[in-house]
Design a protein that fits this description.
This protein has 2 domains: 144 residues, Response regulator (Rossmann fold); 145 residues, Response regulator (Rossmann fold), CATH 3.40.50.2300. Helices cover 46% and strands 20% of the residues. The chain has 13 helices and 13 strands. Strands 7-6-8-9-10-12-13 form a 7-stranded mixed β-sheet, with helices on both faces. α10 links the parallel β9 and β10. The longest helix is centred in the first third of the chain and has 37 residues. It is elongated and about 60 Å long.
């Protein structure tokens, strides 16, 4: 009888030991799964339409904000950056390669890059930046609720305030030229806003459009003696060609009011608008949320807050044109002296 009890006890002990071992193994496996998830390295593909200071700044802000959120390139994320060199066909090729590589996230900088990425996939989350009107571009259904695999940030600038700045700098001005690329959707939108703002202020506004960089010099020269100022919105081709725009316009005595500060750094007179580095940072914060599991289709497109808008003035151009900047503008402006 005692032997039977001892035998039963041994069996119970073995069963308990087996169960404990099984539980430990399940726990270990679960731990490994968690560790594997936590150790995932996310693959991010970046398409930048063209290289110029504004778009470069947006990309740098994006990477900076991701790092601050704990996503560091080369550690728990890998960022592949490709510049399309201003060619739509290159955007499409890059986007296709990213989709085939099954990237976890795509960042598209500027509308042509965004359109190319959206055409290639409805599954991979796409964040956009430097896109003026994502709804008009067909990228999202609405700013508040995209309802697609696309969200991000818009670079819509305060066009009306920028045109009003012309009247403050040049009270006697009667006419302005709006310099932009006729094929850029973003630029056409801003040009129409500028015309409406100019009409409200009693200014005559004329289109000065280009289709490629080779036309810039001739178009600017044709404005001599015809307009009092040039308004250049956030246009990729014009931003890339600002050294030429500035050289010719300054030589014939026409000031350039710009859509963003990078264009002022390249020779524009003044800008009141967004900082693309700050815009890129907001996009980077959105990226961290997407990588953390947030549904991009419900993530609102964001704009740079009004309190981050700023005025930038190129002192060398001020001196070359002999323009007197009102004190109330100077007091709140960043002055570029080099």
């Amino acid at each position: 009888m005692l032997e039977r009890k001892e035998s039963k006890m041994k069996k119970v002990t073995k069963i308990i030991a087996f169960l404990v071992s099984a539980i430990m193994l399940i726990g270990f496996a679960a731990g490994c799964t968690t560790e594997k998830k936590d150790d995932k390295v996310f693959e991010i593909g970046v398409i930048q339409f063209v290289q110029h200071p504004a778009l470069d700044a947006a990309y740098n802000g994006f990477v900076e904000a991701l790092a601050e959120a704990g996503y560091v390139d080369g550690e728990n994320i890998n960022i592949e950056f490709q510049n399309a060199s201003g060619e739509q066909a290159n955007c499409q090729t890059i986007a296709s390669n990213y989709v085939n590589a099954k990237k976890d996230l795509i960042l598209a900088i500027a509308t042509p890059a965004a359109a190319a990425a959206a055409m290639q996939t409805t599954e991979i989350p796409i964040l956009i930046t430097a896109v003026t009107d994502p709804v008009d571009a067909g990228l999202v259904e609405s700013i508040e609720v995209p309802n697609t695999n696309v969200s991000g940030t818009s670079d819509l600038t305060p066009v009306s305030d920028q045109i009003n700045l012309i009247t403050k700098l040049l009270p006697e001005a009667e006419s302005i030229a709006i310099l932009y690329t006729s094929s850029e959707v973003n630029s056409v939108i801003q040009a129409n806003l500028a015309k409406a703002a100019a009409a409200d202020l009693g200014l005559d506004a004329f289109d000065a459009t280009v289709s490629n960089s080779n036309e810039i010099q001739q178009v600017i020269q044709s404005l001599a003696g015809k307009v009092d100022a040039i308004y250049a919105p956030t246009d990729n081709l014009i931003a890339n060609g600002m050294p030429t725009v500035s050289m010719v316009a300054t030589e014939i005595g026409i000031p350039i009011i710009c859509g963003e500060e990078g264009m002022v750094e390249q020779g524009g007179l003044i800008a009141y608008g967004i900082n693309y580095h700050d815009l890129g940072r907001i996009t980077g914060e959105q990226a961290a949320r997407v990588l953390g599991g947030e549904d991009i289709s419900k993530m609102s497109v964001e704009y740079l807050p009004e309190d981050l808008l700023s005025t930038t003035i190129n002192q060398a151009v001020v001196d070359a044109l002999g323009i007197e900047i009102p004190a109330d503008i100077l007091d709140n402006a960043e002055i570029i002296t080099e």
